[in-house]
Design a protein that fits this description.
The chain has about 300 residues and is of the alpha/beta class. The protein has one domain: Rossmann fold (3-Layer(aba) Sandwich), CATH 3.40.50. Strand 3 and strand 4 form a beta hairpin. Helix 6 packs parallel to helix 8. It binds S-adenosylmethionine. S-adenosylmethionine binds next to helix 1 and helix 3.
Length: about 300
């Protein structure tokens, strides 16, 4: 399983937050307000594959004044980096001990539980928390289509997942190796990231299909990164380096061509990297869904 560096996650964080699709976010907030009231107070949110907690920092300002988050990751180093990053981000630390973690940022009071769990082995513990919302950022392209189907069958909460890579990239100015590099990178995206062959660019569609089969209402929209050398130099450099490394691992493009591509891309004027956001809400009331098997619920 490839580890994700805290440096990479911190460089992409502001761009991730700025890129989230506003229509999909609005659909998620409208749903939660209709269900829990306009103030969205005291909601419980679970973030899958939380990394250093970027998704919490991006979403907290849109939720109510009291929030309860569970941050889930299998990497203990990222979970402790998340704790540190949240302490830095907070205006006030209310409690930080082994049992409880509670911070205040502007008018928001946020309780956080850190949960180390390998979501490949089981997501039952997480789903059984029955949170008001399950979120994830840059996570679903890592899992397999089989995992997506099983997860969607077991889901009991609304799901808001952002920044799932969709396999589209445009670099400016164009380079002769762009197509070959993209094809190899997309192939690498579909190798095993710990869940069997990864869904990669097919993840968003697979998730949409699986949830629609269960009669979930699914909203989808693009959350592409639009990067420019002048504003996002470090992210573009790390991105090009990461792509080049992955492409070399596939053996599909000659090393010399990858090197040339990387040198050109480090100086590229800009690039657009495609992502998709999804909000999916159950249309069958919880009590009815519980009394039906998933198959019956999907056909009702
Ligand atoms: C691309 S990173 C995204 C991190 C974070 N959501 C963000 O947007 O900054 C993917 C995250 O999924 C986590 N992850 C990967 N495989 C996992 C697994 N089997 N169980 C739990 N977390 C996993 C990684 O440790 C990493 O934090």
């Amino acid at each position: 399983m490839g580890g994700f560096s805290a440096e990479w996650l911190s460089v992409r964080e502001p761009v991730d937050h700025a890129s989230c699709n506003n229509m999909v976010k609005r659909a998620m907030l409208d749903y939660l307000k209709a269900k829990h009231g306009k103030t969205l107070s005291n909601l419980s949110v679970v973030d899958l594959g939380c990394g250093t907690g970027s998704n919490l920092r991006g979403l907290a300002p849109f939720l109510g004044r009291q929030q309860n988050w569970t941050l889930v990751d299998y990497d203990p180093l990222l979970l402790s980096a998340a704790r540190e990053a949240l302490l830095d981000w907070a205006d006030e630390v209310i409690i930080d001990d082994d049992q409880r973690f509670e911070i205040k940022r502007t008018e928001y009071t946020i309780k956080v539980q850190f949960l180390q769990a390998d979501l490949m082995k089981s997501y039952d513990e997480v789903l059984n928390l029955r949170p008001d919302l399950i979120t994830a950022a840059a996570f679903f392209d890592l899992v397999s289509i089989d995992w997506i189907n099983r997860f969607a069958q077991a889901l009991k909460s609304p799901l808001y997942t952002v920044l799932t890579y969709n396999g589209t990239e445009k670099w400016l100015p164009p380079h002769v190796a762009d197509q070959a590099v993209l094809a190899a990178f997309v192939a690498h995206q579909q190798t095993d990231k710990g869940f069997g062959s990864a869904a990669g660019p097919h993840a968003a569609q697979a998730l949409t299909d699986a949830l629609q089969t269960r009669s979930y209402n699914v909203s989808q929209g693009l959350s592409n990164w639009a990067l420019s050398q002048s504003e996002h130099h470090t992210l573009m450099r790390l991105l090009a380096k990461g792509i080049a490394q992955a492409v070399v691992e596939t053996g599909q493009v000659e090393q010399v061509d990858v090197n040339e591509w990387l040198a050109a891309r480090s100086l590229a004027k800009g690039c657009e990297i495609g992502h998709v956001d999804i909000f999916a809400a159950p249309t069958v009331p919880d009590t009815l869904a519980e009394s039906l098997s998933p198959k019956q619920a999907s056909t009702s």
